[in-house]
Amino acid sequence: MARVALVTGGTRGIGAAICKALQEAGHTVVASYAGNDEAAAKFKAETGIPVYKWDVGDYDACAAGIAKVEAEVGPVDILVNNAGITRDGFFHKMTKDQWSAVIRTNLDSLFNMTRPVIEGMRGRGFGRIIVISSINGQKGQMGQVNYSAAKAGDIGFVKALAQENANKGITVNAITPGYIGTDMVAAMPEEALKRVVAGIPVGRLGKPEEIAQTVVFLASDNGAFATGATFAVNGGQYMA
Ligand code: NDP
Questions:
Q1: Coiled-coil segments, which residues (predicted)?
Q2: Of the residues 107, 112, 125, 146, which has the fewest C-beta atoms closer than 10 A?
């Protein structure tokens, strides 16, 4: 059944692939982004998907943004919490700003985005909440104490929220991608990236589309029995 899907960070990388795949699956898709207007305009021109700008770390901005989307497009039935950032560095050198930016964008965002939609989903008796966590939230990653903590927090959020809403037709799941070829990974030092790829049994980086198809399944009516789960899509790099 076609529904309204909102994808945060939907204008680039994994989020853009998720938007396109949900659109191909017949859903009415809306993408949010933070500030890269050029990428957002290009994405909108290519896909026809409407784009909305707000900071997922800001609760009031999320509540206002979601109200606007719901007024203009319709009630959000599928929420994909995808927006995320890294601010890497060893913990003994990490600044409070690096810590806070990552927790805010990758973890606080789950409250900020999900709280405004959950009551509507409960009232309508249907909802799909999908969180893009990370392999590094499962295994930990040196140089990413902030990111590993936030992404592990995402998984706890999913498990608890799934229990609270399972009897209301709402599923809540996490996907933990391994290393996927996007701007985020392109920002890694070349040598570090080579070492990472050498540790992936499939022998390559993942593609954004390979994450997107997992989202399409979880968002579908056939995904109704999957809830509170963590879906690893990582080329065999980590088998938790
Ligand atoms: P990209 O850096 O390619 O894209 C990030 C997207 O998130 C952009 O659309 C960006 O908007 C948006 N965004 C960033 N900060 C905010 C904010 N504060 N408010 C609203 N939107 C924001 O990231 P990826 O596609 O690589 O990653 C997507 C998700 O997948 C993230 O949660 C990431 O942690 C996770 N992930 C990625 C992996 C990878 O290998 N790439 C591996 C595991 C997990 P704008 O364009 O305006 O900046």
A1: none
A2: 125
